[in-house]
Amino acid sequence: NCVMTKNRAFSSVTGWHQDIRYWSFQRPDLVSAWLALGPERVDNGCLLVVPGSHRLDLRRDQYDDALFFRTDLEENRRIIGDRIAVELDAGDVLFFHARLLHAAGNNRTGLTKFAAVFTYHAADNRPLAGTRSATLPDIPIPG
């Protein structure tokens, strides 16, 4: 659905979040496919993920107003303490649930990092009427 870039000149840390914040569906069960278009390493801002976090029952007060996971809370710091860096090579794909907590560092190299990200939902998981998700066309995948 988009091309993600991290350029050294404009790169910043991407805070901890869940991608479900971008989507409005009947159920929060969506899957993203992150396709690395070049090497993704810690020094160029690769994804950091908390394995299994998509299964956690997190409260609204654990997030700020922009729906970033608050790092000022001790309970949240314990959760993100289990993070791992996902280093990828060009052509590698990471599939992850839209509720997975993830972040990314900034790019400290001289080369721009590129990735393509596609998000999928089941045919019976419809977008909520009146939301941005409902205005975007679906591309059915034959089953």
Question: What's the helix and strand layout?
Answer:
Blueprint lengths: L1 E5 L7 E4 L12 E7 L10 E3 L24 H7 L3 E3 L6 E5 L4 E3 L8 E9 L10 H4 L8
Antiparallel strand pairs: 1-8, 2-7, 3-6, 3-8, 4-5, 4-7
Overview of the molecule:
Strands 1-8-3-6 form a 4-stranded antiparallel sheet, with no helix packed on it. It has a 4-stranded antiparallel sheet with strand order 2-7-4-5, with no helix packed on it. It contains 2 helices and 8 strands, in the order ββββαββββα. By secondary structure, it is mostly beta strands. The model has no long low-confidence stretch (mean pLDDT 94).
Shape: globular
Low-confidence region ranges: none
Identify the strand order in the major beta sheet.
1-8-3-6
Rg over CA atoms, rounded to whole Å, is: 16 Å
Structural class by SSE content: mainly beta
**CA distance, first residue to last residue:** 20 Å
Order of helices and strands: EEEEHEEEEH
- Helix count, DSSP H or I runs of 4 or more residues: 2
Strand content: 25-35%
**Main pleated-sheet profile:** 4 strands, antiparallel
Name the average pLDDT. Answer: 94
- Percent helix: under 10%
Number of strands: 8
Key phrases:
143 residues; mainly beta; four-stranded antiparallel beta sheet; 8 strands
Short description:
With 143 residues, the protein is mainly beta.
